[in-house]
């Protein structure tokens, strides 16, 4: 039996990425019984699995094996042992500087993870300039409380979210010193009834100050995703962000090069307004990976301004597909890079 399983694993490794298949095998994700090889996939990646199945179907059939998949998101180890009830993994999206489209990346990535099948929440950690209420089309929403102590998150587009922007008037300025802002963030995070979430995506403010330290020291962060644009001024600040996470023992899952290429909405002409390849070079310099190069396109801006982020619209459009592909890459790389935690949740079949 083991010999047949080993042959099947070899077939999969040749087509689905050797490192990933080996990691799945070492963590007991495969089970062969009566000619059915079940892959207990610890993340949602239907496109990856469908491609793997298509590439290996003939060779597995020659071994008398069919491939089946069930999915549950694994709980991965975080930088500190201070769990948040119901939340398996916390992914912070950071940039080091403002103006690189980090909030747009955060909301579309969160929605893409949810579109793949995961249960996802969004925490808007930008106390001074919250964007999520507008981007989710919930500017006038206010969290409810059933016990006077905790609050229910706002529901929008299949995810749950909370933000200081839901708690103060949208036209008010949050004039708080750092410690007060950090305390407010901690309260929003800990006093929200998030429910059962596979991922909490945190839209971080720019910089490397109090909010970032609060997240690193008080929140069990699984990993960080760095967003940059290709030009040198953004890369310099993104480098500081990477170094900050290294100092607080938060792994970086990878980089996103946003506004990589401007695409003319009229003729389709592409132009590298902010230079080319900076995100790739930065990732290489830090032994990381550039997981996506996203275009500078007016549709992204129009959609978030309207409260209907691009991923909530046509999933077949290239602009949506870019985020759906990023979501699977992030989910897979988180699993490969991070050791397993201890929580488990019942498996749900996805095909």
From TrEMBL:
Homodimer. Pfam families: ParA. CDD domains: Mrp_NBP35 (cd02037). Belongs to the Mrp/NBP35 ATP-binding proteins family. The keyword Cytoplasm does not apply. Keywords: ATP-binding, Hydrolase, Iron, Iron-sulfur, Metal-binding, Nucleotide-binding. ATP binds at residues 96-103. Signal peptide: none annotated. This is Iron-sulfur cluster carrier protein. The keyword Iron-sulfur applies. It comes from the Bacteria. Binds and transfers iron-sulfur (Fe-S) clusters to target apoproteins. Can hydrolyze ATP.
